[in-house]
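Task card 7
Instruction: Convert sequence to structure tokens.
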Amino acid sequence: MKRVASHYTFCSPSMILRRAVVEQDDLLNVTQIFSLDEGFVESAHTQFFDGIISGEIISIKQNTNLENIKNLVEEFHYIDLSNENFVLETYNRTKPLLIDFGTNSVTQINLKLTKLTIRFPIFEFIAACVYYPTLLIGQSPELQENRKSKLILWENVDLVKMELKFHSFIREL
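Output:
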């Protein structure tokens, strides 16, 4: 078992927890999520981190075919960051954002994060590369008990403005 906590835990776009602990077994199953502020559960052996905890980043390209990706454009503002020389246009927020890094590699994703020139609202960005892709490949998208997922820590995020910064990065917990 491992227990990790941070300033925020992104469970879904409608459920973002402050000061929560995520407990996970050796098979990456979430066994419990609880608040540090409620005080009903002992927080011993918990690692505390600055940033935001979320489920793993999912690449649509690695989990579906090209025809399905073409159909996504009707429902989502799909941004493909898989190419080395991607161009990120302005996002107009008329459709939910869907970001595809084309990889699940934390190292490769961090390289692409450093090239972003638009500052995104952090929870919208996390939903775009964690929640919506997981939903679209037919898995349970919400970080909750009994869900199997790697945990990602979003670091160097502006927690006052709630934005992804130019030097933000992720790591697996």
